[in-house]
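Entry 0007
Protein: 4-alpha-glucanotransferase
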Amino acid sequence: MSSTQAQVSFFSQRRAGVLLHPTSLPCSESRYLEGTTAFGTLGKEAYRFIDFMAEAGLSVWQMLPTGPTHQDLSPYQSISAHAGNPDLISFDWLIEQGWIPAESVHLFSPDRTNLAIARQQAGASFFAFIQTEYGASVAQTYHAFCAAQAYWLDDVSLFCALRNHFQQQSWTTWPEGLRQHDQQALSAARQELAPEVAQVCFEQFAFFQQWQSLRNYAQKKSIYLFGDIPIFVAHDSADVWAEQGSFLLDEAGQPMSVAGVPPDYFSETGQHWGNPHYDWDVMRADNFRWWLARLKTQLELFDLIRIDHFRGFEAYWSIPGDTQDARQGEWIKAPGEALLNACFAAYPDLPLVAENLGVITDEVEALRKQFALPGMLVLQFAFDGNPANPHLPHNHSLADVIYSGTHDNDTSLGWYASLNDFSRQQLRSYCFHSSDAMPWLLINLALSSVGRMAIIPMQDFMELDGRHRMNMPGTTDKNWVWTFDWDQVDPGLATRIRQQLATYHRLVNQV
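Output (structure tokens):
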């Protein structure tokens, strides 16, 4: 299979981007917050970040999955594979659009409970507004959105309303009719919880409207949004609840087999993710309908999409559902070729990148290359003393996406600090004993690669140490909460980045 047209446009010239999740942006809703740091939103700081990127000559903004999260905040364990994270909604944007009055939002502490209360206040004002003459056109747009997205919004809105009704308890504990997704029980619940269902619909409408506004702004600056699809979905999600027959579950709805990985670079005992595995036979029988619907939603959000844990399309690590020990798993073949054939038949220009890190076999790479999917190479993995290491720059290829590190790695400065003297010397020797200080030594190594796309985490551009990493795989403490402030950004950083991109021929024509 040949490369898609979309991929050709991205990889036909050298370019560079930045990795930063929107939650890591400074919070722009300061006038509603008193004394507590909050996560970033799709508000004015997101637009400021795009301006920064344009000034720096960066043309790709890569981020993590943008779905609603559980209390652990992991974007890889989302409540929905389709929905947007309501925590990213900007109240300022809603006020500027005239959808809600400023006095309708009273938020004194931006924890998730108070954010939810503030969104309820905003929702009440929004529904009052669209009942007025002035809100008629917005009402029409809102109802059109709900109709167009009904293929996922109907289930997500009811699922979230039910989770709130049952105090966030897993759907497997709900009354039998609701647990089994019985249509009669669902209809009764939808009527009983109509205001709560409408609130979720409002939040999704607000998210998608704000997202499209931001995406349009990015496109005017010749900046593309690079998304991330987790290969698996959370057990406690609208997807598993609504599509139980497509997952390996027992009669009580509990997973018979869960996802993870065997021991690897990140963990000596492997990782137990807990996501239920797909029933691939069922999915193949309906031509992967669920996957095609998932891609449809993501293509409305992103210009380029990374498939996280791509190797799971060739074979997946199956851990028995009754154990927490990831080492008890086994590799089981997956129908990756059939799935990707269906995806590209439905979306011929599908712009995918394969996350091919970890335990990667010849079969996995053959599947990736069969569909001409760019892969990932990470410089922090390169210096193990093996000259054949694929992450070393002399082994890179044009279609590779080159990273100094990823959201799962330490910052490059933190990584370098953890190296022994021999490893540091090996890195310096490889770089011709360059006098560049870290992390710019690694940044410049990524930018100089033959790989046509290079992505640098924002923490590396800001020269931050390991205290600022986004995630530490295998742990659940203090992950996904890092944010930056513009005061931490050197005033000359954009100019420095642009100069380096010019040196390595990675500037793309921008307005």
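Curator remark: The chain has 19 helices and twelve strands. The longest strand covers residues 224-230.
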